[in-house]
Design brief:
Layout (H helix, E strand, L loop, with lengths): L2 H4 L2 E2 L5 E5 L2 E6 L2 E6 L4 E6 L2 E6 L4 H22 L2 E8 L4 E5 L2 E5 L6 E3 L5 E6 L3 E6 L2 H14 L9 E4 L15
Antiparallel strand pairs: 1-6, 2-3, 3-4, 5-6, 7-12, 7-13, 8-9, 9-10, 11-12
Amino acid sequence: MSRIGKNPITVPEKVDVSLQGLSVKVKGPKGELSRTLPEGVAISQVENTIVVSPTSDKRKSRERHGLCRSLVANMIEGVSKGYTRKLEIVGVGSRAQVKGKNLVVSAGYSHTVEVVPPAGITFAVENSTNVTVSGADKELVGNEAAKIRAIRPPEPYKGKGIKYEGERILRKAGKSGKK
């Protein structure tokens, strides 16, 4: 049995969880999320805790046990606290700004790149080089941050590009001159 899956999930006071079979709906101050869990697990709620358990001893059921527990826990944390991912833009002339809800990135190309956020995601920019992606859905926040990073991934020689905050770029030595 999964060690992660065994742990019960505590539900905060402001969060409302409704279960119907394998579909889970979570509502809280930061938004509303819903998801249908895969077959092989059973989910139950006792007062302010949620317990996920495998329905059989088959391999698929045991594999999905910890996954489903983590998905539900991430949904609850997302609607109560929210998730953020921070990116840094490195390079001369590279910057970002928010126009309406969209993020406009100037990353050294001949044109600017406009990123349209999906529902539930917001962009914030500090001093034109630090971008914050925030929302209630952990998966969606991570995907949007990865899309922004993919506009200009950091290069190994000077470190220019868009990187996650705290990401360490492995640097390479450039060409050595002839003597």
